[in-house]
């Protein structure tokens, strides 16, 4: 079963961060965990052209942030929770979050994501995606929605499977969460779309027949994968579709009304990340429901 002792909720006081706080508080109650609420100040510490009253401005910003953190906590009526309220300073938000996680042995990060796409995403980047890629512990991201679903409504948990060690670790978490919430798993494998070679069609065999055979064998492999993965016994449905991973994971979650996606991240950085991209980051950015991400070599909560 999941063991969560310390949860971090980083906030920039935005609407999406506020939505994430509901999830953080709910999980803290469920697991009797300590909730760390954190705001990162990202002003440059060693500005070569400091303002004459820089220290006074810094103090005013700290006081304002403290006041807004307090207001956010009180709005949720969190008297039954153990809360640690902190402010940190760094040159950038994501490094501040990651450093705090490592220094305070955080088990889970719960944070909002604006879900920017296109030019806005290229220009502004995403703090959530950087945290997901580099955090040493699992991360629960909540995309800002006009009408967010109730935090306790967790009946369908989607876990994409590619039969790698990464997806097996994600499945371990998904099984534990399904048992905890009495939810049902939606195990999904996506067969990348392909164009059959001309000689294959010339044999008289149909690509559809081959696809059906492949889907049958893949479904059997999913059933075996669930059985072989450690964790409690849970109910599950098995889905095999043709398509493209990131796009169709998102569409599936929307169509099947998934309440949570549990997915692994390879944690690639630098040139490898730029060349290969990340299915997980695209899912985090666009998913219609919260996304729970885990790294293969990260901290284990099971």
Broad CATH class of the largest domain: Alpha Beta
Please state the structural category. Answer: alpha/beta
Count of separate structural domains? 2
Distance from N terminus to C terminus (CA atoms, Å) equals: 6 Å
CATH fold descriptor of the largest domain: Rossmann fold
SSE succession? EHEHEHEHHEEHEHHEHEHHE
Largest sheet, order of strands side by side? 3-2-1-4-5-10-9-6-7-8
Q: Shape from CA axes? A: elongated
In DSSP terms, counting alpha (H) and pi (I) runs of 4 or more, how many helices? 11
CATH superfamily of the largest domain: HUPs
What proportion of the residues is helical, as a percent range?
Answer: 40-55%
Mean pLDDT equals 81
**Beta content:** 15-25%
Largest sheet properties: 10 strands, mixed
Question: How would you describe the overall organization of this protein?
Answer:
The chain is built from 11 helices and 10 strands. It has a 10-stranded mixed beta sheet with strand order 3-2-1-4-5-10-9-6-7-8, sandwiched between helices. The N and C termini lie close together (6 Å). It folds into 2 domains: 149 residues, Rossmann fold (3-Layer(aba) Sandwich), CATH 3.40.50; 129 residues, HUPs (Rossmann fold, 3-Layer(aba) Sandwich), CATH 3.40.50.620. Helix 1 links the parallel strand 1 and strand 2. With 302 residues, the chain is of the alpha/beta class. About 5% of the residues have low confidence.
